[in-house]
Amino acid sequence: MARHDETDEGILEEAMDWFLRLREPCRTDGDEHDFRHWLDRSPTHRDAWMKACRTWELMGETTPVHDYLRQPSATQAGGIALRRRRAWGVGVALALAACLVLALAGPSLFLRYRADFETATAELRKITLEDGSTVELGAASAIDTDFADGARHVTLLAGEAFFDVRHDPARPFVVTAGGVKVTVLGTAFDVHMRSEDTTVELLRGVVGLAVGDASHAFELSPGDTVTVDRGSGRITRSRLAPEDMAAWRDGRLFVNDVTIASVVRELQRYHPAWISVPSGDLANRRVTGLYSLSDPDRALEALVQPYGGKVHRISPYLRVLALF
């Protein structure tokens, strides 16, 4: 049995399950009766519930849904307030559900409709295309391919992909990603598309790169890396060691002077839990480093510890990064 000053992982998972269950509009009086029975089983159960409520607060709500259930019972005099809180909780749950459907299901359904090949969270996949070229897809990535009428065209819809293109002078191989167009005959390169920019890293050969309406067009040589800001169109060129290119294929994430928030977005593709950074101060800190994709929890800790941050492992399904 867990000591009173500790929260057992299994009980904490139960608390999170209750938290989600009690937000459901279809919950019954029996559900709340069962919850109260669960809550009163031990101080450890109450501690776990308090932690679940604090998690809600960390996510930006001043009052957690069913915060009144922190108390063992409700008085009859508080019945009206109780019903109001229930109605408020239902409204929040419905609003959250709608947002989650749009934010999560929407893009996923869109990708499933367009993508010829895709990967799930933490999944890597190697694909051989019709012309013999190969594509290695990073986690949570998707591509659409077009080889009709002699074309060799791939669109990166999400995530990251490493291309090893079979040489064919008569058929240029074209990759488009977020307003960036890469044209090659035969080479090896990585394309990484994020919400704010697109990066191309050239390992071998020569590629032509065009941005937007092709008003910015130039060639890359081996070792070149180019990042194009999707908002401003600003182009940043630098050099990168061959062993650091497409490091994700070896389970490594190399970053240089980027925000913690952007690193978290990359690690999210390799972590089954939802990762949140509610503190803007922490999210905007800049880092340079090499992180493990095979152990994303360890990577999160290494990411925030230099700034006094901590990874709160709320459950197998949620991580919160905070400055306490």
TrEMBL record:
<dbReference type="InterPro" id="IPR006860">
    <property type="entry name" value="FecR"/>
</dbReference>
<dbReference type="Pfam" id="PF16220">
    <property type="entry name" value="DUF4880"/>
</dbReference>
<feature type="domain" description="FecR N-terminal">
    <location>
        <begin position="13"/>
        <end position="54"/>
    </location>
</feature>
<dbReference type="Pfam" id="PF04773">
    <property type="entry name" value="FecR"/>
</dbReference>
<keyword id="KW-0812">Transmembrane</keyword>
<feature type="transmembrane region" description="Helical">
    <location>
        <begin position="87"/>
        <end position="111"/>
    </location>
</feature>
<dbReference type="InterPro" id="IPR032623">
    <property type="entry name" value="FecR_N"/>
</dbReference>
<keyword id="KW-1133">Transmembrane helix</keyword>
<protein>
    <submittedName>
        <fullName>FecR domain-containing protein</fullName>
    </submittedName>
</protein>
<keyword id="KW-0472">Membrane</keyword>
<dbReference type="InterPro" id="IPR012373">
    <property type="entry name" value="Ferrdict_sens_TM"/>
</dbReference>
<feature type="domain" description="FecR protein">
    <location>
        <begin position="116"/>
        <end position="207"/>
    </location>
</feature>
